[in-house]
Queue: 2 jobs
Job 1
Amino acid sequence: MLVVPSSNSSGMVQKRVSEIDSEALAVSAVKVPARPWTEVAGDGIVSSLVSSFFKYDDAFVYAFFDRDLLVRGMRSGAREYCSSCLVDALCAVRSFTSDRLKLISKATNTDLGARFLSEAKKHLDVEIGKASLATAQGIFLLFLVSCCDGTNWARQHVSVRCVRNAPSPAIESTVHHAQQANP
C-alpha cells in the first residue's frame, strides 16, 4: 500500500487511496505483488500498470519482454528475470497514461510517476555492474521515460550503463532455455 505523506495523512485520504488500489487490483488482468519490487504503490496500482504495459505497449514497442518470465518472477520473488529497477521503470513508463495513478497523485499531492522514476534510478545505482537481463530492460525503460519527460538523464547515464550491463551470452542462453521449458 502506498504510504501517504505525513502532511496529507488524513484517514479520508488513506481510505481513498486504499479504495483506488483495491479497485485497480480487482480489474487488473495481471495480478502481481508490489513488494518486494517497489515501495511506491500497492498491489492494485502495480498490477494495473503491469497489465496496461502488456496490453498496450508490449506487442508494439517492447516485444523483447517475456511476459510470462517477468510475471512469474514478480510473483515468486525470483530476481533472475525481475528487479526493482525494472518494475519501478515499467511503472514509470505507464504512469504517463494511468488515470488511477493520477487520482492517487492528486489525493496525496505526490507525483507517483516521479517517485517510480526516482526509485528506479536509485535501484539502478545498486544493480549497476551486476549484468542481468532485468537490469538491461530497466535501463531501456528509463531511457524511454527520460525521452518522454524531457530530461537529459538518458544522455548522461544510459549509454554508459548499457555497456556495463549488456546481457552476456550466458544470460541470453538462460532466457532461451526458460522459454523452451515453458512454451
Note: The chain has a mean pLDDT of 81.
Job 2
Amino acid sequence: MGRYCADCGYYRDPDDFSNNQWRKGSGVSRCYSCVDGGGCSRRRCAECGYNKTSDEYSDNQWWKGEGVSRCRECVNTPYSCHECGRTFQNRNNLEMHMQVHRPRNVACPICGDRRFKSGANAVQHVENGGCSQCGGGEYAREQIWKFASKKRAMHRYMTEVPMLTYNGECYDEIPDYPYQCPDCYVQYRNLSQLLQHQDQKHGARLPMLTNR
C-alpha cells in the first residue's frame, strides 16, 4: 500500500520513496522526485489553500516560500469590498479601504467625544491637540500615557511599566518610545501609531478604549 507524498501531494507506491523517507511516516515522507528536485514540486497556496505545482506560481511568489506563496490565480483575482463593490489588487489595500465603512462609535478616552472610526483616530484627536480637555503637543501625549498606564491590560503594550501611587496617579517621566507591539516588538513614540499598527498588521484592538 502506498501513500501520498508530503511535498507534491501525489499518491505514490512504496518504491517511489527511499527507505529513510518511508520510515518518516505518512504525511511526512517525500518521494524520490521531490527529494531530488524533480519537476513535480508542489505547495499549498497561502490564499486559496489548494496544493498546486510550481508552474502555477510566478517565480517571485514561488521564492517567497511555503506558507507565503500565492498562486497566479489568486494573485490575478481582485479583492472586492462587500459594502460598495470596489475591487482591489491585494488584501492590504482592501483592508485599508474597509476603514471607510467603519461606524463612528469609538469615544475619545479623555473627553468622551464619540465620533471616531478607530482607537487610532480617537488618540490622534488628543495627540494633535483637538481634545477640549487637554492641550496639544507633549502635554496631550503625557495625558494619554498616564491614562494608558492606569489600565493593567495595557501594560503588555508598554516598554516600561510606570510606578503608580496609592491613589493610582503616575509621576514617572514619559519615555521617548513608551509603546511596544508585543507580537513583533516594534516600538512607537505615540499610542496612535501602535493602535494603527495593531489594527492593520495583527487585526487586534487594544483594551484601553473599552471604557473611559
Note: Strands lie at 3-4, 11-12, 42-44, 51-53, 79-80, 87-88, 106-107, 114-116, 179-180, 187-188.
